[in-house]
């Protein structure tokens, strides 16, 4: 079984997630780690001292031994790095969104699709075992014809000012994952929707948003996402999952970021299954990418087109909510109290 050589670029949180997954995989050799921050390079050196460490992307792009590049930087610099990697004939795993503007993403997609190289984007739900199993149950006919998809992802996530600014507010940065999930399940493109936002703590952007509408094939959807779920609650809680209703049955899934619970209610089957949530599934992404390089078949990889569509639609839903006078509840003083509380928790 062939082992491929990877260069990891951008050693933030996701960069280290991917680095660890590559190190643990028997399909990958970490050839290079690239970042402008010396402290991050030193931290990476502790994990994989056999790699080459550099602040210059050209070092790994000019090395013919490097098969692929993982681009884990923020969105504002991704288009430049991704284009340079493709010009160097390297396959790419990239974080999402692919650029810090929708126009930039669509322009970059043209380059990607004309390159003849494999580019997979970390839309992590597409690598989740539980979505694979739920979709197999639906495909078996157990719930009849799919009619309604409802997705919920509400957590005490990043607060305003805490980071990810090139990726945008929560419904774009995080919500695009769930816009993608609904489209994936429906097997169709979005047709129309209404979106309601809430500008918590009087922040200018909605920090909670719920959208509902229909796909071109008639399947209807509801997506709710926000980083407002009990920010200062004594005990941390989340509301995350999906419910898929058909003409004959249904299946629903919930998770608490640790354990997944799936409830199957089909015409012949009623069961409950639990399993590990698996965080960002970077290990699965790494394995599937190697398999795709083996076979030339990238159908199991989350594609750049899937990512750009999810990014575009989530931004349009966010813009809709902002244009229709999203109300503001809460104060900036409350926001500052929450930010201080989160600092203490991290400390």
From TrEMBL:
Domain Gfo/Idh/MocA-like oxidoreductase N-terminal: 6-122
Record has Oxidoreductase as a keyword: yes
Domain of life: Bacteria
UniProt keywords, alphabetically: Oxidoreductase
Domain GFO/IDH/MocA-like oxidoreductase: 133-251
TM regions (residue ranges): none
Record protein name field: Gfo/Idh/MocA family oxidoreductase
Organism of derivation: Thalassobacterium sedimentorum
């Amino acid at each position: 079984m062939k082992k491929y050589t990877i260069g990891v670029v951008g050693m933030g949180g996701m960069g280290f997630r991917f680095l660890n997954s590559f190190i643990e995989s028997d399909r990958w050799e970490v050839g290079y780690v690239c970042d402008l921050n010396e402290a991050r390079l030193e931290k990476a050196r502790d994990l994989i001292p056999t790699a080459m460490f550099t602040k210059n992307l050209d070092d790994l792009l000019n090395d013919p031994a490097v098969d692929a590049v993982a681009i884990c930087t923020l969105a504002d610099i991704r288009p430049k790095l991704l284009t340079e990697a493709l010009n160097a004939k390297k396959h790419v795993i990239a974080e999402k969104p692919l650029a810090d503007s929708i126009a930039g993403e669509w322009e970059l997609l043209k380059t990607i699709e004309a390159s003849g190289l494999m580019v997979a984007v970390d839309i992590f739900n597409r690598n989740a075992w539980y979505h694979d199993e739920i979709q197999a149950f639906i495909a078996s006919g157990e719930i009849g014809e799919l009619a309604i998809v409802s997705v919920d992802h509400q957590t005490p996530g990043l607060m305003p000012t805490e980071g990810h600014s090139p990726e945008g507010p929560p419904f774009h940065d995080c919500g695009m994952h769930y816009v993608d999930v609904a489209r994936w399940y429906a097997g169709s493109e979005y047709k129309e929707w209404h979106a309601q936002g809430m500008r918590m703590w009087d922040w200018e952007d909605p920090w909670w948003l719920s959208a509902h509408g229909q796909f071109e094939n008639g399947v209807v959807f509801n997506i709710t996402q926000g980083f407002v779920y009990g920010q200062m609650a004594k005990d941390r809680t989340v509301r995350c999952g999906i419910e898929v209703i058909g003409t004959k049955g249904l299946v629903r899934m919930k998770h608490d970021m640790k354990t997944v619970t799936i409830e199957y209610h089909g015409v012949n089957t009623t069961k409950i299954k639990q399993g590990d949530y698996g965080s960002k599934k970077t290990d699965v992404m790494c394995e599937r990418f190697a398999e795709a390089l083996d076979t030339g078949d990238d159908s199991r990889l989350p594609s750049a087109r899937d990512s750009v569509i999810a990014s575009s639609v989530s931004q349009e839903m966010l813009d809709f909510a902002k244009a229709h006078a999203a109300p503001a509840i809460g104060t900036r003083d409350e926001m500052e109290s929450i930010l201080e509380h989160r600092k203490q928790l991290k400390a």
